[in-house]
């Protein structure tokens, strides 16, 4: 193949034919971009904020004095909130001099499940995001307060038109891919066309849905591109952020293999992708680890340092699915950090072996855990039944005994401290078996044959109220589901649990072939993106919930730019979801995390210590004396 990224078995003629048949313009054919002269003559631009995340954190903490020396904080055992606050306040420091940093250090980062793809376009799991966050680049960052800013490591300027529909980016001229080729504005236009192409929707649905309101991305020269939004919305800034892939690598290969999974070149790229971020892939052993190394071409350009040098020489993403094994590895110093399951916080993560090398901290997180009911199932179509499920949960048993009092009860999709949550907070569901029985009776579910299981005539046939709840194989999920099984047995409902690997559970969820699923959602950067979960026929609406008023409010929230008015819209959405109970909301998790005592620089956002900027890039290892 004549172009970079091909295989010797494919001729240039065959490649050109594949490109012509695929037609990269197919998904954007109806849009005609203005010329540069027309654009500049008819547009008044306003500058948007561009930040250098790690540089800014280092400047902010330059004169910071921690409450106690970090080495002293590392001896605390997080037995109360005061100790946890002291650890967090002491460990967030940045180095005062380069001599403090172990620049040859390795960070062994725990991930609970295997990395699905090293290609940023089909990424779907937290582990994928961790890798792509270190190997990829983008023009927009989320700061610690979940606000969008221009990424100064990538862009020189970010400007928007008066009507907020045109966003212009000028990228830096010192950006290169890991194969040495320059990163240009063409890579953004190309990637956008890939995402919008109708053949690609099945392979990259999540990213495609996030760009639903973007008409076009046009590269006007090597360093300038404009994002054309179809309307002015509150999430236009976030829509500017999508992962990119190198055009010179994928232009021929995607046309020949849109799945990006079956051809030789894509199989090779899954082992060693061409990337633009601060780290590149050294090796990948499926089911075991992905090893990244600091990329000199990221922070050096033409012999000069142009960006902050990444602190770690090597980052090893170590896959350990069993939490007992992972905690043992953390205690031995074989891994450097992990999320600690709640049932382990006061047991395995409170042993002398654990404290010998590690500290543990907790912080609020804007996620939630729930039982998702299949609202199209005959069992759960009626909101009264779903409400009965919520009244049947023994929340005290769940929160105090199973979760050790570490988390707070949830009552909806938005964390009560977030700006989009109802004010005042909606009442919490209580453990009320009489109320549950009453609602089930009203919905027609009664024990007519005295066998201890409720039943109902549906389509001329008596149907017993029995169902299966699916969960992933984790200690927390097992204990949570057992509480539910025990509670529901007391109101005449028989429940079986099914432990399922995440990939299988995800497929069942997408196919809607389930009764109920125990799971959780993390926080997005904006509440509008929860439309993907609760909007009618949306991609992640696994329970097939539908409320026309909720759909209408999501559309209103999209175009409302006034923050106070937007907040009221999402508060109303949360109230309607609360009334319909498509989920039984169980608890808002705190981020429970263990870190090696030599690690510094971690701070927690509403999405944890990593999934914001600078996040993972701000962590560093103390140089040994």
Keywords:
globular; alpha+beta; 6-stranded mixed sheet; 625 residues
The overall pLDDT average reads 94
Termini Cα gap: 54 Å
- The share of residues in extended strands comes to 15-25%
Inertia-based shape: globular
Percent helix range:
25-40%
Biggest sheet, open or closed, and with what strands and sense?
Answer: 6 strands, mixed
Q: Helix/strand-derived class? A: alpha+beta
Q: Which spans have pLDDT < 50 for at least 5 consecutive residues?
A: 1-8
Q: Helix count? A: 23
Count all strands and give the number: 27
Strand order of the largest sheet: 18-24-17-23-21-22
Our Rg estimate from Cα atoms comes to 26 Å
Model description:
The model is unreliable at 1-8 (pLDDT under 50). The chain is an alpha+beta fold and 625 residues long. Helix 1 packs across helix 10 (247-256), helix 7 (185-196) runs parallel beside helix 10 and helix 16 packs antiparallel against helix 18 (433-442). Strand 21, helix 19 and strand 22 (494-499) form a beta-alpha-beta unit. Helices cover 32% and strands 20% of the residues.
Compact summary:
This protein is of the alpha+beta class. 32% of the residues lie in helices and 20% in strands.
SSE arrangement:
Elements: H1 12-22, H2 36-42, E1 45-47, E2 50-51, H3 53-60, H4 70-73, H5 81-91, E3 106-111, H6 126-135, E4 140-142, E5 148-151, E6 155-161, E7 166-171, H7 185-196, H8 205-210, E8 214-219, E9 224-229, H9 236-239, H10 247-256, H11 264-271, E10 279-285, E11 289-294, H12 296-299, E12 300-301, E13 304-305, E14 314-319, H13 323-332, E15 337-339, H14 342-345, H15 352-357, E16 358-364, E17 368-373, H16 383-391, H17 395-402, E18 408-409, H18 433-442, E19 455-458, E20 461-464, E21 466-471, H19 475-489, E22 494-499, H20 502-511, E23 516-521, H21 531-534, H22 548-559, H23 563-580, E24 583-588, E25 590-596, E26 599-600, E27 620-621
Parallel strand pairs: 2-5, 3-14, 21-22, 21-23
Antiparallel strand pairs: 1-6, 4-5, 6-7, 7-9, 8-9, 10-11, 11-14, 12-13, 15-25, 16-25, 17-23, 17-24, 18-24, 19-20, 26-27
Helix pairs in contact: 1-10, 7-10, 16-18, 22-23
């Amino acid at each position: 193949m004549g172009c970079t990224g091909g295989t010797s078995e494919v001729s240039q003629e065959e490649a050109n034919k594949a490109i012509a048949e695929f037609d990269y313009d197919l998904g954007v054919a109806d849009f005609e971009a203005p010329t540069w002269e027309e654009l500049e003559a008819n547009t008044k631009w306003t500058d948007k904020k561009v930040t250098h995340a790690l540089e800014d954190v280092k400047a902010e903490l330059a004169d910071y004095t921690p409450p106690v020396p970090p080495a002293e904080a590392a001896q605390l055992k997080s037995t109360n909130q005061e100790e946890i606050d002291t650890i967090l306040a002491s460990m967030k420091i940045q180095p005062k001099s380069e001599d403090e940093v172990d620049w040859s250090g390795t960070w062994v980062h725990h991930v609970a499940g295997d990395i699905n793809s090293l290609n940023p376009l089909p990424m779907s799991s937290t582990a994928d995001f961790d890798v792509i966050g270190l190997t990829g680049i983008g023009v927009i960052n989320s700061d610690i307060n979940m606000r969008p800013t221009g990424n100064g490591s990538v862009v020189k300027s970010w400007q928007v038109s008066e009507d907020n529909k045109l966003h212009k980016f000028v990228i830096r001229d010192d950006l290169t891919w890991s194969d040495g080729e320059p990163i240009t504005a063409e890579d953004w236009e190309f990637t956008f066309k890939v995402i919008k192409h109708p053949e690609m929707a099945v392979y990259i649905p999540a990213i495609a849905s996030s760009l639903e309101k973007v008409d076009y991305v046009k590269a006007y020269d090597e360093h300038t591109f404009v994002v054309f939004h179809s309307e002015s919305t509150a999430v236009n800034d976030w829509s500017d952020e999508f992962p990119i892939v190198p055009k010179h690598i994928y232009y021929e290969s995607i046309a020949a293999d849109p799945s990006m999974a079956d051809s030789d070149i894509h199989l090779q790229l899954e082992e060693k992708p061409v990337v633009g971020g601060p780290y590149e892939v050294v090796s990948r052993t499926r089911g075991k680890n992905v090893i990244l190394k600091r990329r000199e071409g990221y922070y050096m350009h033409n012999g000069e340092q142009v960006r902050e040098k990444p602190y770690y020489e090597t980052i090893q993403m170590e896959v350990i699915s069993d939490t007992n094994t992972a905690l043992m590895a953390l205690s031995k110093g074989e891994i450097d950090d992990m999320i600690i399951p709640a049932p382990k916080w006061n047991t395995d993560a409170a042993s002398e072996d654990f404290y010998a090398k590690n500290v543990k901290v907790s912080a609020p997180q804007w996620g939630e855990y729930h039982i998702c009911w299949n609202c199209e199932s005959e069992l759960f179509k009626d909101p009264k039944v779903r409400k009965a499920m919520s009244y049947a949960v023994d929340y005290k048993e769940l929160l105090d005994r199973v979760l050790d009092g570490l988390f707070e009860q949830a009552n909806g999709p938005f964390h009560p401290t977030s700006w989009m949550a109802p004010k005042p907070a909606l009442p919490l569901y209580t453990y009320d078996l009489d109320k549950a029985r009453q609602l089930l009776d009203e919905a027609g579910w009664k024990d007519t044959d005295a066998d201890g299981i409720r039943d109902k005539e549906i389509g001329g046939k008596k149907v017993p109220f029995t169902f299966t709840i699916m969960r992933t194989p984790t200690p927390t999920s097992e204990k949570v589901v057992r509480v539910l099984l025990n509670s529901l047995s007391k109101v005449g409902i028989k429940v079986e649990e099914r432990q399922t690997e995440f990939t299988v559970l995800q497929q069942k969820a997408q196919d809607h072939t389930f009764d109920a699923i125990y799971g959780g959602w993390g926080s997005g950067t904006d509440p509008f993106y929860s439309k993907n979960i609760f909007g009618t026929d949306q991609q992640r609406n696994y329970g097939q919930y539908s409320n026309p008023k909720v759909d209408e409010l999501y559309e209103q929230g999209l175009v409302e730019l006034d923050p106070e008015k937007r907040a009221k819209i999402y508060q109303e959405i949360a109230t309607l979801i609360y009334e319909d109970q498509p989920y039984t909301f169980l608890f808002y998790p705190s981020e429970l995390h263990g870190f090696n005592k030599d690690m510094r620089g971690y701070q927690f956002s509403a999405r944890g210590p990593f999934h914001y900027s600078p996040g993972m890039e701000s962590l560093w290892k103390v140089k040994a004396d």
